[in-house]
Specification:
Order of helices and strands: EEHHEHEHEEHEHEHEHHEEEEEEEHHE
Radius of gyration: 20 Å
Number of strands: 17
Shape: globular
Oligomer: single chain
Distance between the termini: 40 Å
Strand order of the largest sheet: 16-15-14-13-9-12-11-10-17
Helix content: 25-40%
Bound molecules: nicotinamide-adenine-dinucleotide
């Protein structure tokens, strides 16, 4: 990492240039996650599981996960959280780098026999310790490893974006269905108490009739050589990586599906980072009720903000979808309140996600963010790209 870059714990890249104050806040937030794991994000998991129409049941034993891809998100964010899970445990590692795999295996007590590389991956089907494969690879590899895992008879948790095309998403859903296995997408905000509380308030009329969502997500991309900036591996630019949070927020806060999109992109192609993928992209989504959402994503400026406005008030979240340190405000009746989610079990979004996946796999119930959720986002993302390329409104 260059000296101009700082690890960014509030965005998905893991790396961004940050101002000193922001960097210090991020460092403290991350230390809090690493050491205590459970501190951030009180409440909400029980509410998530029940409020979201899931039939998931607690499994009789902890289900074993194989983590595929030992990059930043897998090793720094997800793997440490197994220690806090009630229904999930780390069982196997899949990596192209045997030394790295052995290092993490030693740190987390994974036996040598449960280490796989990308060629031996399919043997995971014979491993009774592995119930769930968690795909944490570059985006264009999600479809292949999800399908291989399903064919090996394993349930799959796949990171966002689900894949890089609608066709891939459909093939993943079909493969898991054919194998009779559960497929869930790593949409952690659906397990995050502030976002869950915002969804509930909006749904229950706290801001009146829902009229408008504004959602911004972005960070400053560093190294031009990283996979996120390569079309073949990332599938696209800021929209695939960060704009997907803006699309998600518009959907889960309005509770509606968009019917049309109008989009514009702006990318400096002389910047070596953006030779292959878009930087700034902005769009308008039209919803059947007449609600509108403005969304955007960027790889050249920092954003993490969501607002939903109704005819009686509004909800503001900034940051809206970080790893920790969320802020939620309700503005109504001439006043503004900073809200904490209602008290509940001390579970953070990562633990909530892992355990919900285990519960869904064990019970055969549909997870609250199943493959169809990822497919719907990919339909919208493809429509956003088409609208920006063709300069016209596209119906979804
Ligand atoms: P990363 O670059 O840190 O890790 C990627 C891993 O894939 C590395 O271990 C790398 O060795 C491996 N890999 C295998 N084949 C590769 C290839 N051909 N090219 C490059 N790497 C290859 O990336 P990350 O930030 O951990 O992201 C991984 C996935 O997780 C992405 O899909 C990303 O969108 C997702 N993610 C989600 C969140 C979230 O909050 N839900 C956060 C970060 C990342």
């Amino acid at each position: 990492m260059s000296r101009r870059e700082q690890k960014c714990f509030n965005c998905d890249s893991g790396v961004a240039r940050a101002a000193p104050v922001e960097a210090e806040r991020e460092r403290r937030v991350t230390e809090t996650i690493d050491r205590r794991g459970l501190l951030i994000g009180l409440g909400g998991l029980a509410a998530a599981a029940t409020a979201c129409n899931s039939s998931a049941q607690p499994p009789a034993r902890k289900l074993g996960y194989a983590i595929v891809g030992l990059g930043y998100y897998a090793t720094r964010v997800i793997i440490p959280q197994f220690a806090n899970c009630r229904h999930s445990r780390l069982a196997a590692l899949v990596s192209g780098d045997p030394d790295k795999a052995r290092r993490y295996a030693a740190e987390y007590g994974v036996p040598e026999r449960s280490l796989y590389d990308y060629r031996s991956f399919d043997r995971i089907g014979d491993d009774p310790d592995v119930d769930i494969v968690y795909v944490v690879l570059p985006n264009s590899m999600h479809a292949e490893y999800t399908i291989r895992a399903a064919r090996a008879g394993k349930h799959v948790l796949c990171e966002k974006p689900m894949a890089v095309s609608v066709a891939e998403c459909e093939a993943m859903i079909a493969a898991c269905r054919a194998a009779g296995r559960t497929l869930m997408i790593g949409y952690r905000s659906h397990f995050e108490p502030h976002n869950l509380h915002a969804m509930k308030l909006a749904r229950e009329g706290a801001i009146g009739r829902r009229r408008y969502v504004h959602a911004e997500h972005g960070f400053v991309a560093g190294d031009p050589g990283q996979w996120r900036l390569k079309k073949a591996l990332a599938g696209g630019g800021s929209l695939m990586d960060m704009g997907i949070y803006s699309v998600q927020a518009a959907r889960y806060l309005t509770g509606e599906e968009p019917v049309a999109v109008t989009a514009r992109a702006s990318t400096d192609r002389s910047d070596p980072r953006f030779a292959e993928v878009e930087d700034l992209i902005a769009w308008t989504l039209d919803f059947p009720s007449g609600a509108i959402s403005h969304g955007m994503s960027s790889y050249s400026s920092n954003h993490n903000r969501v607002r939903i406005a109704g005819d009686r008030g509004r909800i503001d979240m900034e940051p809206a979808t970080p790893y920790a340190g969320h802020s939620l405000r309700l503005v109504r009746d001439g006043g503004e309140q900073r809200l904490a989610p209602p008290p509940g079990p001390a579970v953070n979004q990562f633990v909530g996600q892992l355990d919900h996946m285990s519960e869904s796999a064990a019970s055969g119930g549909a997870p609250i963010v199943a493959g169809e959720e990822g497919l719907q986002d990919m339909r919208i993302i493809e429509a956003i790209y088409r609208s920006a390329a063709e300069g016209r409104t596209v119906r979804i």
